[in-house]
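Hi,

Apologies if this is the wrong queue. I'm a grad student, and the batch job for Peptide deformylase from Mucilaginibacter aquatilis produced an output file that my downstream script rejects. I'm not sure whether the problem is my script or the file. Here is the sequence I used:
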Amino acid sequence: MILPIMAYGSPVLRQESVDLQPDYPEVDQLIANMWDTMYNATGCGLAAPQVNHPINLFIVDSQPTYDAMTAEDKALYYDGDQGVKELFINPHITYFPDRYWSDDEGCLSIPGLVGSVKRPWQIAIAYQDENFVSKNAIFSGMTARMIQHEYDHLRGKLYLEHLSPLSKQLMNRKLSKILNGKYASKYPLKYV
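Support response: The file is valid. Your script probably expects a header line. Output copied below for reference.
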């Protein structure tokens, strides 16, 4: 089922999420709905707070992005990484290197806007899978960027916080339209 995505200005997007427990009601259905919702919106990641569940859960599918890249751009991926389709429960990023890079980011909760964000090139992350089995992994390049973006959502942060003051100022008119429910999106948005 396709869920409405919480629009910029929704309080849940600024709330720190709590750990997901195995007995969370209908978590399997929530996860299935999140995949449907993300693909319907042509997204590459979605965090549970974006569908009004302030829990430590997000999904990422960087495979379509990887498949659409040129051979030169594919060098932005870690050795052997051809994109991932992964569910992250109760994640904790455990390592950020000193190497950073900037690239454009957008957000399904802030449709129609993109901004250049500087993020670490690589991360190590500890998390649980859909069976609550603990995992540790290292991701680089675009996949690491997508994971960091979704991880920020669990901390009540938006990519806007990584932008320069001038970049944010240039977005004010469009952000105001979203805040006031006057932005026409191609997917269901929920304004609060």
